[in-house]
Design brief:
With about 120 residues, the chain is α/β, with parallel strands linked by helices. It has one domain. Strands 1-4-2-3 form a four-stranded parallel β-sheet. Strand 2, helix 1 and strand 3 form a beta-alpha-beta unit. The longest helix is centred in the middle third of the chain and has 14 residues. It is built from five helices and four strands.
């Protein structure tokens, strides 16, 4: 199993090594063509709630609390069992990449989600 994260703006052309590509942002990344993104899935419901996203504002100082709040949202998310199953199945067949749009590549929801999946045994 292999779950990686990747900034969607970093390289719009998908790498053949990406495998199954899932956008995990609640909002579509500005300036990215839906055709050129070549997504397999866009799971808006897995991204942080609008209130949490706005509160965080990608402020690194708020990241520890953002992480706690986002994990709580993931735990309560009724879509999580289906998402976990999808990622488990796809990662058993090949790599999975969680795509995100944030400029900060170390303080964002994809990092938290990747860690969350690892805790669930999906690495």
């Amino acid at each position: 199993m292999s779950v990686k994260i990747k900034r969607i703006y970093g390289d719009l052309l998908p790498d053949p090594k990406d495998g199954y590509r899932i956008l995990v942002d609640r909002l579509w990344p500005r300036g990215v063509s839906k055709v050129k993104a070549e997504l397999d899935e866009w799971d808006k419901q897995i991204g942080p709630s609008n209130d949490l996203r706005k509160w965080f504002g990608h402020d690194p100082e708020k990241y520890p609390e953002f992480k706690q709040r986002y994990v709580a949202e993931l735990d309560a998310n009724p879509n999580m069992p289906d998402f976990l199953q999808l990622v488990k199945e796809k990662s058993a067949a090949g790599p999975v990449v969680l795509l995100f749009g944030a400029k900060d590549e170390t303080h964002n929801q994809a990092v938290v989600l990747q860690e969350y999946l690892a805790q669930k045994g999906i690495k």
